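WARN no homologs supplied; continuing
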Amino acid sequence: MPGHPPAKRSLGQNFLVDENIQRKIVEALGASLLDEVVEIGPGHGALTRHLVGRVRRLVLVELDDHLAGELAAGYAGRDDVEVVHADILDVPLAALASDVSQLRVLGNIPYNITTPILFHLLTPPRPKEILLMVQDDVAARIAARVGTKEYGALSVGVRAVARVERLFKVGRGAFRPVPRVDSAMIRVTPLNPPPLTEAEGEALRRVVRAAFQWRRKQLGKILREHPDLACDPEVASGALQAAGSAPADRPERLSPEQFIALASALP
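OK structure emitted
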């Protein structure tokens, strides 16, 4: 982009330059003057400039030294904009917002750390709404239907604690530099009240991780023989019954709700 240093591959930077898509994203967020918004990786402010003045408070979290300085200088005169020069993975949302439960989060995030960022944002306390630009195939996996080949640990992990909506696809031509893949906007709305305690969430992750590591095997065998589970056959049978499943089922046949029931029935 003229007047700006080139994007840094090390930070996975692809800047959104299509103004129509920028406006469409901000409209999808639906934030008002009552809202506090955190924007992850604002870059040169493509989305930021559509948000400033439309929300009560805007917090920009930018890791790039030059871009953080550029944003801080550009919005130095505004009390309603704060620039945080940091890696979002190092900053809990509670440190950025007055009330996380009412917070909206927006981000055009690096493809290579989509999953860590998403699960960081879904670590309690969770925000009201998350809108993220992700790689199109990752969006497909998060929103995949039960029983499909795209359905897996990522689908279950996110949808056990949130509703997911795939909003619209964004072609690679909307970015500079042009990435090798298309993108999609997703809306992730954490369930309120939270459906799982911290301990229940950890138990679920253990079961889901094991199940999809052995996704081609039957659940009865996974529960009995996977080293992270190693259940007694009677316990495994009872847990599957509690989840409304059968020993011959494979992991992709269980809904997130069934996985929650399965994990809660295991010791």
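Confidence is low (pLDDT under 50) at residues 7-12.
OK
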